[in-house]
Amino acid sequence: xxxxxxxxxxxxxxxxxxxxxxxxxPLCRACGSALAPAPxxxxxxxxxxxxxxxxxxxxxxxxxxxxxxxxxxLARALAPAMRAALSAAVRDAERAVFVPVPTxxxxxxxxxYRVPELLARRAGAPTVRLLRPAFxxxxxxALGRDERIxxxxxxxxxxxxxxxxxxxxxxxxxxxxGATCDEAARALRAAGYEVLGAAxxxxxxxxxxxxAESTTE
Length: 217
Fold this sequence. Notes:
The protein is of the alpha/beta class.
């Protein structure tokens, strides 16, 4: 409900396109076209396959940052990309459960909504909260690849056992190093779930320094 109120307010207040800055345009036509899905897959060191539909740079990066700053209306523009990533993750499965990475209490207090869940919902995929934080992690934005991995290790746990449950797909907004998706998959597997892979709206280009681009909670 709070996310819906935020979205309604954003439509009434003066806005600018998050891609080019054009005033009065929630998302201009040209920048909207930059959100066309271009599915890609990345295999992490653990073997987890992460499916994405956008590169986290330029317009997509600007849109995702504004979404996390309160522009919840932009989740609709990202829905086709999120839907493409989700579809790729479950291509060979008859059914699957979509599990978002847990949102920190701090982020929930400041935003009032969970970004991965909002994106999945706008893409038409219901989510099930099967993960919770085991402890608070340090801010990932200033950390490098190996530091992020160590920071995320053991930070999540499943809230119930997975025997007899359909395979699951981890859902997040952006993958940078993959540490968060890897930890979510580890926690789910430890509880007995079969993890098909992960789906995110966008992936940071591999050539980029992980310290430079991040939307980590």
